[in-house]
Each structure stands twice: as structure tokens, then as C-alpha cells.
């Protein structure tokens, strides 16, 4: 084996390493995540999704039968100024989404959502199963 390296090897070394982000508590801005808790009762599913640092208008919930999708966008901007001279400017934009399938179709028309203190609370009533009917032949 040869120890000769191509000149571009040094250029690309570390190129795809994830950049370090600064600004939050402890020095790093955390990527948004969706932590979900799902509870089932006889009539509905209760979903609590943690979305800290995300504004209500940047959260979207989509229901398709038994599949629930939650997506959100987080925007973080911070500038430190000394007079007119900017010492540091940091920005973070990130999107996160989470989909999961429940055991039964959801009745979208009776579903509700509220967002309080960084927690999205969904009440997802189960769709009533269609009753089989027997047709009378005339």
C-alpha cells in the first residue's frame, strides 16, 4: 500500500463535520427534537409532544387515518453589539418532524390541539368503526 495522499484529501478532511453552534444554555444551541408521550383511553388518544423554544404558529399537525404527523420550525437569532459594532451574530434555523401510527383511525373533525409552555397537547378521538349492515333482498 502506498502512503501517497492526493492533494485534495487535506481539503476535504473535516469538510463534512457538523459545525459547532453557540448561544444557548451551556454554550450550545440544541437542535429541536420532538419527544412524544401517547396515552390511550377507550374513546381517544392523548398525545403530549415537547417542543421547547418553538412558537405556536410554527407547529403543524397532520392526521391521515391512524397516522399523526407533527412538524415544527425553530428560529433562533442572537446578536451581541457594542454600540454600532457587532461583536457576534448567531442564527439557527431548524425543522423537525415526527410521525407515528396509532392503533385506530382518528376522527379529525373532533380532534383538538393546544400549545401551553412548550408542550403540544393533542386530543385525538377514535373514529367509530362502521357497523356492518345486512341488506334485505327484495
> Beta-strand percentage?
over 45%
Give the end-to-end Cα distance, rounded to a whole number of Å.
Answer: 87 Å
Count of β-strands: 7
Please give the CATH class of the domain at 32-125.
Mainly Beta
CATH fold description of the domain at 32-125? Immunoglobulin-like
The second-level CATH architecture of the domain at 32-125 is Sandwich
Let me know the average pLDDT. 77
User: What is the molecular shape?
Assistant: rod-shaped
Structural class assignment: mainly beta
Largest sheet: 4 strands, antiparallel
Runs in which pLDDT lies below 50 for 5 or more consecutive residues are 8-29
Number of helical regions: 1
User: Percentage of helical residues?
Assistant: under 10%
Task: Give the SSE order as H and E letters.
Answer: HEEEEEEE
Spatial strand sequence of the major β-sheet? 1-2-7-6
CA-based gyration radius: 24 Å
Report what the structure shows.
It is a single chain. With 138 residues, the chain is mainly beta. It has a domain at 32-125: Immunoglobulin-like. The protein contains 1 helix and 7 strands, in the order αβββββββ. The chain has one helix at 7-12; strands spanning 35-40, 44-50, 59-64, 67-82, 85-101, 112-116, 119-125. It has a 4-stranded antiparallel β-sheet with strand order 1-2-7-6, with no helix packed on it. Strands 3-4-5 form a 3-stranded antiparallel β-sheet, with no helix packed on it. Strand 4 (67-82) and strand 5 (85-101) form a beta hairpin. The protein is rod-shaped, with a radius of gyration of 24 Å. The termini are far apart. Residues 8-29 have low confidence and may be disordered.
Amino acid at each position: 500500500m502506498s502512503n501517497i495522499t492526493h492533494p485534495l484529501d487535506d481539503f476535504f478532511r473535516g469538510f463534512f463535520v457538523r459545525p459547532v453552534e453557540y448561544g444557548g444554555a451551556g454554550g450550545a444551541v440544541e437542535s429541536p427534537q420532538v419527544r412524544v408521550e401517547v396515552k390511550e383511553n377507550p374513546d381517544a388518544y392523548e398525545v403530549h409532544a415537547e417542543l421547547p423554544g418553538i412558537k405556536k404558529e410554527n407547529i403543524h399537525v397532520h392526521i391521515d387515518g391512524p397516522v399523526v404527523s407533527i412538524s415544527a420550525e425553530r428560529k433562533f437569532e442572537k446578536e451581541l453589539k457594542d454600540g454600532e459594532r457587532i461583536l457576534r451574530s448567531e442564527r439557527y434555523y431548524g425543522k423537525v418532524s415526527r410521525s407515528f401510527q396509532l392503533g385506530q383511525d382518528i376522527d379529525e373533525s373532533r380532534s383538538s390541539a393546544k400549545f401551553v409552555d412548550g408542550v403540544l397537547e393533542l386530543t385525538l378521538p377514535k373514529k367509530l368503526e362502521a357497523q356492518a349492515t345486512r341488506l334485505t333482498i327484495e
